[in-house]
Amino acid sequence: MYLYLIRHGDALSGSPDRERLLSERGKEETKKVAKFLKGTGIEVKTIYHSGLKRAEETAEIIVKILETKAAVKKSGLAPDDLVLLISEEILKREEDLMIVGHMPHLSNLASKLLVGREEADLIDFRKSAALALEKKFDGPWRIQWFITPKLL
Predict the structure, then answer these.
(1) What per-residue confidence (pLDDT) applies to 13?
(2) Hey, where are the domains in the chain?
């Protein structure tokens, strides 16, 4: 199983925080990353996002470029949510999954899956960055790649 963790693109400042939209830079960087994802041959049927506008917009750009099904709002993916529930759900899955979310939640989730401690803070997710993790059968999670818009 592959798990793709993607941080939302750069967003406009303002409040309320839940309604902040992507900036033009955020849209362009997300498109670059989505085109990279398409070039890898990713075929993911399920994309979760937090429901915050910047994550929803990021997910919509990825859906369009990957030509896949619509993204689904999922509770428990907000910036400061605990990762326990989503990590338990992930461990029960067999089908690849993509999550578009926020810091520090994404870093905490990656750390929990990789080393069992969410406070390990292993991955510095820049805006629009994408991390691919793979888990084979009962083996450990392994990092396959990590990309940021600056590298593209």
Answers:
(1) 94
(2) 2-151
